Every structure is written in C-alpha cells, then in structure tokens.
Amino acid sequence: MPAHLTNYLVMLPILAWIVWRRVSRQFGRQPIRRRRMIFRIVVFVLVGGLLALSGFHHAALAEGLAAGALLGGALGLLGIRLTRFETDPAKGDCYVPNPWIGALLTALLLGRLAWRLLVAWPQMQQAPAPGAMPPANYAASPLTMLVIGLLVGYYIVYFSGLLIHHRRFQRAHPGSSTEL
Length: 180
Description:
Elements: H1 6-24, E1 30-31, H2 34-52, H3 59-82, E2 84-88, E3 92-96, H4 99-125, H5 142-172
Antiparallel strand pairs: 1-3, 2-3
Helix pairs in contact: 2-5, 3-5, 4-5
C-alpha cells in the first residue's frame, strides 16, 4: 500500500467509532447533559460559521450550507415534537429521540461521505508531489455543504429545544433532576 494512504487507515477506525457513537445515541433513553449540549451547540455554531466563510470564495457552497441549515432547523423542530421526554429515577430527566430522524440523518451523512470517497479515490491513488499538500476538497460541493448544513442546523435547534424542555422540567419539578 502506498505510504500516503496510511493516514486514511488511521482515520477509518476513528470515523467508525464516531459513527457508532452517533448511531447509539439515536436509540433508547438518553439523559439530558446540559453542559455537553451547550458545548455541542457552540461547536456546531462555530463549524457552521467557519464553513460559511467559504461562501466568500464560492457562493454555491454558502447557498448549499444555508439551505441545509434551514432544512436542518425545520427537521430539528420536528425532532423535538417527536421526542418523548421521561423521568428516570436514576438518570433524572431523559429524552427518547425519534429513531427515524436519526437514521435518516446518519444515512445521508454516510451516503454523502461514501460518494465523496468514491469520487476522490482515483486522486488519492496518486502520491502527492514532494512538499505539496494534498488537496482538501472535502466540502468542495454544494451538495456536501447541504448535508453538513442539515446536520449543523438540526443539532443546533434540537439541542436548544432539549435544553428549553429541561429548564421547563426543572421549574415544574424543583429538586427532582440533577445537573449532569
């Protein structure tokens, strides 16, 4: 195997672990962890903002990201409406996400990543010139930016909705839930 492909061998197990964690959080009762959710909202806002800067160079990329973020926000509102909220004696305030929305988002992300990998595979077979950086065109497609925007918009709205529900739950049941 060419030496320049070893980076991809390192990244594949990490990517598989990230996907497994993502899929495992789409099913079953999940505790509300406020600090983690706030951190994720901040990360998604930063990622979305940084990717939006690519619109200065390619307007089609910014349009794809914006369209995806709007669709993702609408899907996030639907996800909140379809989420069941429960109280667990051990875990406190919990939520059960709608598995269909999570499965749809995961399938879109994996499908788009697989497609981009298939398209870029012939370029990856050639060793880069000495001292040259390999091209970083992971998001050089408006469709890829649409999928990324869909995820960014969905999770910002979804986690915000979960935090709003958690605040309402704490007001309705003072002292019954723990801060995680």
